[in-house]
Amino acid sequence: MNRESQATSTIRRILVVDNNPLIVKMLERFLTDEGFEVKSAADGLAALQVLDEYTPDLIFVDLIMPNISGEKLCRVIRATDSLRGVRLVVLSAVVAEENVDFQAFGADACIAKGPFAELKENIRAVLAMLVQQPEQAAREIIGRENLLQRGVTRELLDIRRYFDAILQSMSDGVVQLSRQRRIVFVNRAVTEMIGWPEEKILSSNLLDHLSAAAATLLEAALVDREREIATTGKVAAPCVIGEEEEVLLGGRQVLLTLLPLVERQDSSCWLVMQDITERKRAAALQQRYQQQLEEEIERQTAELAQRYRELQSEVERRKQTEAALQASHDELEARVAARTAEVEKLYSQLLHSEKLRAVGKLAASIAHEFNNPICGIRNVLQGLQRRQTLAAGDHDLVAMAVRECDRVARLTSDLQSFNRPTSSQLVMLDVHAALKDILLLCQKDLENGKVEVRQELAPDLPPVRAVPDQLKQVFLNLLTNAREAIGPTGGRIVIATRREDDEVMISFCDSGCGIAAENLERIYEPFFSTKPAVKGTGLGLAVSYGIVQRHGGRLEVESREGQGACFKLFLPLPKQ
């Protein structure tokens, strides 16, 4: 580094924006030697793209550049919140011919481009000023006094101002686009259409401001234009978009004209935007009035025709109404007859249920009457065992008679418990003990029916919280259904228990006739039964299903007709 600048204490990163590659290269080398980190851009649009990812402390800006001039670039930077602390210094040769008010567009200083040795000294002076007096901007253009005015440059600047004034006064919008579809120039009409200030519009993508369909059409037109330029070097005619299609820009409907202007293959393109919102609105209004008139004529014609058809069809509608009433009457009679038959069936089932209830009470009464003599007989036999000396054979016979008395006593006790009203008290119940009681009660019936009962009981099965007589009722219903499904030829019933996670499973699987598929969804309905009326009420499974649900469990069935059925009862284990 040739000279250590005092500005390096607060200014480290610098961006150079100039379309002259020689000036850019010389400034990059000089500023790098001065100890700065330097990046460059060839025009205003390229500079904004650099600033999307890089924030310098200071920017040197040329005024006359393609794709967003230096003045507009300064306005855009000053309007960007994240870049408001960046210092702006204008480097331009046109200050010899034009008095540039650099402070009006936000620049902190302006240096005239002259001999490079003087330019370097002027840059060092501005950097020192910006560090020593950061709140104070330069008032005069530095280095201007040593430049000579150029007549051609003044004339070109006058022409440029003239054309800019014309473009800004036009009622139609004018837009200049880069090859990347970035906006590098807009006139005042475009800012009013979009509703944004020029600083916010510049460098944005024009396609983002259009409706999706319009953006697609414009992109296709631009691609065709670029292809035509690459092939022929020119564009034959303007391309108009929006006459047939709806093109929306900032809520306004516009007509886009892509001008056939070509300077070089990689140059930008120009579009003219005509606001046709009011014209389209007037045309739409006229079309709507015309359509309303045609619809009114058509409506009145149709109304007359409809009235005529209504008069002709009145008699036919009355005939149809009478036929519908007759059909409804017939249907009502059929439904009354079906309902009557259903009530009679329910009444018959109710009578049968009452008979079963009476039989249950009678069985309990008989059991009570049997219990007293059985107890007496048992006491006598036990007395004989204690007081009399019996032969070995007689002693075995008496012991067997005592056991039979105990079995009859248990049977009578079970009959009484089934007829006794439920206590509804939940207690810890041994499932295996309850199954044993039910099997003892049904043992004789199972033996007479040639039914083999196989028990697959899990060891150490935990108890469940249940109402004992209700759960026994479920076991009895399932065992009875399995026995009746097997038929007179005999078969097998497998009773299994096991623990599954937080549940106890008890299954009753038989080798009987099974359940038809169409009946599986109805087996839990009250009074539904496939048995003859003298053998079943259709209440067993319905009652069992309700008991299981009240215990927080579930009842599942697996069956195929002719292949037996398997009912699985799941009961939750009590929480610790």
Helix content: 40-55%
Q: Count of helical segments? A: 14
Distance between the termini: 82 Å
Strand content: 15-25%
| Corresponding CATH superfamily of the largest domain | Histidine kinase-like ATPase, C-terminal domain
User: What CATH architecture label of the largest domain applies?
Assistant: 2-Layer Sandwich
Describe this structure in words.
It is elongated, with a radius of gyration of 52 Å. It contains 14 helices and 18 strands. The chain is α/β, with parallel strands linked by helices. A hairpin with a 2-residue loop joins strand 15 and strand 16 (503-510). The strands form four sheets. Strands 6, 7, 8, 9, 10 and 11 form a six-stranded antiparallel beta sheet that branches. Strands 2-1-3-4-5 form a five-stranded parallel beta sheet, sandwiched between helices. The longest helix is centred in the middle third of the chain and has 111 residues, at 277-387. The model is unreliable at 1-9 and 148-153 (pLDDT under 50). Helix content is 50%, strand content 17%. The protein has helices spanning 21-33, 44-51, 70-78, 116-132, 151-169, 188-194, 198-201, 206-209, 212-232, 277-387, 392-419, 431-448, 468-486, 540-550; strands spanning 13-17, 37-41, 58-61, 87-92, 109-112, 173-177, 183-186, 239-241, 248-249, 252-258, 269-275, 427-429, 451-456, 464-466, 491-500, 503-510, 554-559, 565-572. Helix 2 runs parallel beside helix 3 and helix 12 (431-448) runs parallel beside helix 13 (468-486). The protein folds into four domains: 6-150, Response regulator (Rossmann fold), CATH 3.40.50.2300; 170-275, 2-Layer Sandwich (Beta-Lactamase), CATH 3.30.450; 312-420, Helix Hairpins; 425-572, Histidine kinase-like ATPase, C-terminal domain (Heat Shock Protein 90, 2-Layer Sandwich), CATH 3.30.565.10. It catalyses: ATP + protein L-histidine = ADP + protein N-phospho-L-histidine. Keywords: ATP-binding, Coiled coil, Kinase, Nucleotide-binding, Phosphoprotein, Transferase, Two-component regulatory system. The modification 4-aspartylphosphate is found at residue 62.
